[in-house]
Protein 1
Amino acid sequence: MSFENLLIERDAGVAVLTVNRPKVLNALNTQTLDELRRAILDLKHDDAVRAVILTGAGEKAFVAGADINELAVQSPTGGREHAVRGQHVLDLIEHLGKPVIAAINGYALGGGCELAMACTIRIAADTAKLGQPEINLGILPGYAGTQRLARIVGRGRALEILLTGDQLSAQEAHRLGLVNRVVPAASLMAEARALAATLAAKAPIAVRYILEAVHKGLEMPFPQAQIFEATLFGLVASTDDMREGTKAFLEKRKPDFKGR
Ligand code: CO8
């Protein structure tokens, strides 16, 4: 599978996906979104991949948003289609069934912040800037940013970020819970790779069910979410990895999970 605007590297259970349009600060045009969709589906079905890192090419940007050249000429129906397509790609990332770490190496604005929010865990370089500046273009986020941001940082904080369009420093984003960690820019990829390796060594089916229990469960009424969790718990009890995990504990050794 070859891409024009995306780089993929796979090593020891971890795939690194890099949005590669540094001349426009990795802005997401239609083609890049489609390449992301294809790459994510490919990684979903690759059993050798157990964790993914998503980042941007160059030192300046993670993703500076949707490509404003395309937004400037969109029609109402085209704009709706574009938003639905983008939402679908971000849903695929959220529901990949494997952890996706956003390594935020610079600007994560608009669609870039939305992309990071669809990831499982966000690590930001201390030089990164995050925000939803759509309001300054006379538009609103269209890749579910209004929804994910409010769920991550709370309604009041989300409204302030969305209505001012202000850029947040990495430290401020961390204070608000928008990013999990802030690290020196020079060690961002090393930190992301170390976390990805840790997650890649966990039992893949249990990882998948935890992601499902949290993401799907949060959209259900609490009693149904509890039953959903209990059902997944019952299912995971059928796996070789459960037997290996419990046996390894009792034998005082590290487990070797196979994803079965
Ligand atoms: N789209 C297209 N080109 C971009 C984008 C973008 N989002 N961001 C930067 N670029 C281009 C610039 O035009 C510039 O190109 P050129 O060299 O040809 O002039 C190049 O990248 C470098 O950028 P700057 O010279 O502006 O770099 P600065 O360091 O001066 O500024 C900023 C960096 C602050 C990041 C600035 O580039 C900026 O404000 N960019 C736009 C940020 C933004 O508004 N993002 C939100 C876009 S809207 C969006 O994401 C909506 C998502 C949902 C859409 C739903 C579907 C309808």
Protein 2
Amino acid sequence: MKVRDEETGPINHLLTSLTDLPSINVRSCSMQASGSATPSGKRNTLTVIDNRTGKQYEIPIEHETIKSTDLRQIKENADDFGMMTYDPAFMNTAACRSTITFIDGDKGILRYRGYPIEQLAEKCSYLEVAYLLINGELPTKAQLEEWTMNITTHTFVHENIKKFMDGFHYDAHPMGMFVSALAALSTFYPSAKHITEPAERTMTFYRLIGKVPTLAAFAYRHSVGMPYILPDNELSYAGNFLGMMFKVAEPQYHPNPVLERALDVLFILHADHEQNCSTSAMRGVGSSQVDPYSAAAAAAAALYGPLHGGANEAVLRMLDEIGSKEKIPAFIKDVKDGKGRLMGFGHRVYKNYDPRASIIKRLADQVFEVTGRNPKLDIALELERIALQDDYFIKRKLYPNVDFYSGLIYQAMRFPVDMFPVLFAIGRMSGWLAQWQEMLLDAEQKIARPRQVYLGHDNRDVTMLSQR
Ligand code: ACO
């Protein structure tokens, strides 16, 4: 059956899933305030004709969306379930209303609570940004001092966490240890399950933001057989993490200020990115009202995958595999022939240069002045140059994402490759928590439970095993 959209315009993209419905005629639509007539006399509704029945439905439009449940009234027969939308991977479905992060993927814009990422990366510390994400406004000086003090005094973990870490095999991936340790934290703080109590949630913010660097560093130290280093509350958030990672026998660890700031900026850049895979996991798992440590473990597990937070690790492995600039054309050819992907390129939302990648590229220069140039940078720069001129990548709007250059900086700072997703998770914790709290306080949210289109067998009888 045909689909007719009489009013082309900015909301057309919202109708993608409707156009897949076989018997629906989307006849007219307009946009303004919900349900009411606009100054031009147009109604802010979508009129849908079901060509199976000839019935017409008027569906309100709000914030350029229609409610999927409004489609349920569309039925061929009275006892039908009603119309649904089909949207694998949530390509065109908003699962929440949010005030935290704004992305315009076509223009390459990223803002937290309205502030451009470029300004936050230049003018703020990670802890200021974490406060902003969770509380909605940048802190005053006094608020920041209190916030920093509360997080800093929650950086220690229970001694049993060390024993727990010791249980892992010597070559366990640090992200596996990190995910498990996050889940284990829930057993130390059982009162965190009282998620409706603001004071409990606040304690969780302090504890999770405070403890993730400690867990991350412990996972690393275990993997290299080094003793665990306890947090040093005299150091900054990033400086303390560097100390717990790399301190050897010196009585006081002094982080290099350039590297300390670079790491802090990387945490800022990774802090939130609206409804990505791991954040959706945090919200989805959190919607069951499980404690936040368990939800955060689920989010971290989602981040581990090579298409998400594991991509920066995959980029480094890819650059190693390429090995030299001369081999880039052959590698690009393989990618275009479908033999693998150019890791660190492409994004579900950005169809332009990822603004975080631009900041990281500049940051890399500062870091390399201290550490010396990472030899893989030349391969990465050449790879980017060639890809950005290639029709395959141009046509598909594939640009470097946040992970393309971040791994090079991490490696120059002596982080092993398998720690990269863990570093991502440290920064992302504040975003997960902000999104989790927003979900909890949103009266429209319920336990997340997608629908399915069942295409399996109709009812059939079981034959006995002996007769099959
Ligand atoms: N290299 C080569 N081709 C690519 C790449 C890539 N990195 N990314 C997408 N494409 C191609 C696809 O093959 C597809 O081509 P086709 O239309 O001929 O089939 C087209 O571009 C669209 O790709 P999709 O997979 O449909 O795009 P989607 O939005 O689902 O995927 C993703 C986004 C997962 C990020 C993808 O671009 C990718 O795999 N990139 C590499 C992994 C990566 O860097 N991930 C980090 C993302 S950022 C983050 O999580 C922090």
